Amino acid sequence: MKSDRLLSILLLLQTRGRVPARELAERLEVSVRTVYRDVEALSASGVPVYAERGRHGGIALLEGFRTDVTGLTADESRALFVLAARGAHAALGLDEALGSALRKVMAALPAPFRPAAETASRRILVDATRWKGGPQPAVDLDTLKDAVFADRRLRLRYRHSGERRTRTYTVDPYGLVAKAGVWYLVADLLGSPRLFRADRVRGATVLDDAVRRRPGAELADVWEVLRRGVEERPGGLVVTVRVRPDRLDMFLRLNAASLAGRPEGGGGGDDEWATVRLAYGSVVEVRQLLAFSDRIEVVGPPEAREELARAATAVVELYRSDG
To answer: Stretch 150-157: mean pLDDT, rounded?
Structure first.
């Protein structure tokens, strides 16, 4: 609708200052000619908006002009108050700022929408942490956050999983991502996208050098590439497992990231085992199946059975020894 588009232009100009007409057209998915017509309509309605042509031109509001109109619908008002648990804001030192911002938004809402927004904040809560995830190590995000907001390069001392010594990297950060209660730094290392777990950062220094991101790359796009690389990484070994019915649900839940297909069987009674296939990066990963004891059986391949047998024997010997 034209009225929604006019309001969008007004709010964008208030937020961004001078904006090129072509950028407004791309954001609103209309032609540049339509943008100029909308600017004329805003001007005719009393909004002090003007256009400057040329290389450094654009569309802007007269300096000092502000409007208190929010333009929010009832659903948009609810959406603003359906927020994630405060852990993420607290980690960034933004808890108080969040509360203050929401109070200001509530005051600016049209009176009929305020009860619905308040109800949404009291009835809906999004908690991104996993059940029984265990205590998370303390994470100091201050330096990472400073580099991200200042668009500066970072020097990291970082410990990779399974390594005792730290490595030193100079990276170009795109931003921070909270995934299931774990914070990650998304950055380029030598021009290639990388993920760094914040709780493995042993030291960080913001450098004076400006960040050197790849042209056109944004945090959301880089994160999507990295996320898919983790979730869709092909396993080097497919292991076939028989699972007792009373443990099937838990088994599938705990091994969801490694599933290589849908389970077969397991629905015909208490004695019918289900067959599940798992994709692992290496045969050593099969040892985690020991947690299910005799409620599962690894059928193949032979090297997976042998690895599990070696691990089970080592456990038995440990508890049989005098020490």
So the answer is: 95
The Cα-based distances of 244 to 103, 250, 272, 308 in angstroms read: 53, 11, 7, 18
> What contacts 168, CB < 8 A, 6 or more positions away?
155, 156, 157, 158
Q: With 80 as the cut, is the pLDDT of residue 188 above it? A: yes
Question: What own/partner pairs with CB < 8 Å and gap ≥ 24 does 34-40 have?
Answer: 35/9, 35/59, 38/2, 38/5, 38/6, 38/9, 39/9
Number of alpha helices (DSSP H) and beta strands (DSSP E) in the chain: 11, 11
Q: Which residue has the higher pLDDT, 4 or 314?
A: 314
**Residue 79 is which amino acid?**
A
Mean model confidence pLDDT for the chain? 82
Output phi, psi for 76, to 5 deg: -65, -35
How far, rounded to the nearest angstrom, does the alpha carbon of residue 144 sit from its chain's CA centroid?
Answer: 16
Return phi, psi of residue 200, to 5°.
-105, 0
For the chain, what is the largest distance between any 2 Cα atoms, rounded to a whole number of angstroms? 92
